[in-house]
Amino acid sequence: QVQLVESGGGLVQAGGSLRLSCAASGSIFSIRAMGWYRQAPGKQRDLVATISSGGSTNYADSVKGRFTISRDNAKNTVYLQMNNLKPEDTAVHYCGVTDRVGIVYWGKGTLVTVSS
User: Fold this and answer.
1) Which tens digits make up the pLDDT trace of 38-96?
2) 16-38 in b/e burial notation, b at 16+ Cβ within 10 A?
3) Torsion-angle region of residue 38: left (phi > 0), alpha (psi -120 to 50) or beta?
4) What is the pLDDT of residue 56?
5) Contact at 8 Å (CB) between 35 and 51?
6) Strand ranges in the chain using DSSP code E only, listed in sequence order
7) Quick count: other Cβ atoms within 10 Å of Cβ 91?
């Protein structure tokens, strides 16, 4: 089992920045990919960015050039630096990690609200 705790969400004006953090605990030795996903009201949960155990990254087209994902394996933590935020980035942001057998674990989410 892996437990995830997100932090760093909040209210910010358009054009502002936020940094999300997600700390993993439990069976951390089994973690492979780590990522961020988001779900706006009435919409499905979508991928924002992922990072592999080797550091390869993948981003949704809507956030390329604005968001940066990184991970600190020593701290078992993944980060999402979000710059130039837009109102359409408003959503609950979830941390998700995949273990070596493909099981996905989710955090409880942190709300990001961007005002225009």
Assistant:
1) 999 999 999 999 999 999 999 999 999 999 999 999 999 999 999 999 999 999 999 99
2) eebebbbbbeeeeeebebbbbbb
3) beta
4) 97
5) yes
6) 2-7, 10-13, 18-26, 31-39, 46-51, 57-59, 67-72, 77-82, 91-99, 104-106, 110-115
7) 21
